[in-house]
Design goal:
The protein has two domains: about 200 residues, Isopropylmalate Dehydrogenase; about 130 residues, Isopropylmalate Dehydrogenase (3-Layer(aba) Sandwich). Helices cover about 45% and strands about 20% of the residues. Strands 2-1-3-12-11-4-5-10-8-9 form a ten-stranded mixed β-sheet, with helices on both faces.
Amino acid sequence: MKAHIVTLPGDGVGPEVTAAAVAVLHAVAEHFGHEFTFEEHAIGGCAIDAHGEPLPRASLEACKKADAVLLGAVGGPKWSDPNAPVRPEQGLLALRAALGVYANLRPLQVHPALARLSPLKEEKLKHVDVLFVRELTGGAYFGAKTRTADTATDECKYTVAEIERVTRRAFDLARQRRRHVTSVDKANVLETSRLWRTTVQRIAAEYPDVKLEHQLVDSMAMLLLTQPGRYDVVVTENLFGDILTDEAAALAGSLGLLPSASLGDGFNGLYEPIHGSAPDIAGQNVANPTGAILSAALLLRHSLELEEEANAVEAAIDEVLRDGPHTRDIGGSAGTAEVQAAVLIALEEHASNSAAFFSGARACG
């Protein structure tokens, strides 16, 4: 197949990990007979420096026309003044809204070879396989804001339609997994959460084969650390999801390991590792590219519908996490380029095995 992918490397380690993900996508295209083209644009702090705005029009228009968007990271100390009128994260929020990517998927698994790196005891990490579905284009991040000399407000607003669509996405995904959805809110205090809960409850009736439970966000923060293995799909609003997914990421041992996919109703999604720009290690060839490469696997699966290819990339990452080399955030000493090279070697093997399997299956058929 042919696909056009826009890359937004961004700031800090973003260009390094994005380059690794692009190298893997090039390899996928070669091994599986596809044609992927890439177009790079600016976002975040580097876009502010070059264009005076965090999401230039050219970047946005290119993203709208693409089959998928692969992003690195935005921000850094240079642009960190919270009172600045123009900030890197504004570009990311504007892009999410413009693309209509309302469901942020963050899968969490703990690799057996890395369980020792988690702050939790290894016995608590058995069978941890959680998919967070975070509503991404509503809530306090997008509500009206006011500021005076001694007061400030951030409006948290949700509509029934916004809650319905992300809830249905969560239940559809649960049907492909273990058929269990946990909805997280603060319905004992917040009116938006009361709307959230009643809407989720109503949508759940459309999925009688999926179990639903509700959790308050404060108790969920505790349960993620005490009973992480009990959860399957977790759906929640924007702010709660942002906090809970970063908390849960610590279970895996490093923020550098985890990917994300931001999806709307079409196929054009936004894919990025969950980690930040890590400016303290930028340009040193030490950043972990795993999260970015796994984000590329999600791109293959959700935007391009290439399940076999996504599985091959994930199998290659699994092999490298098991056998090394490892970057220093997970106890090794390898650089970004060394890990990238190892993944490419493993990918070639898995792609060859996959091709041989499907060739044999066709011959038998």
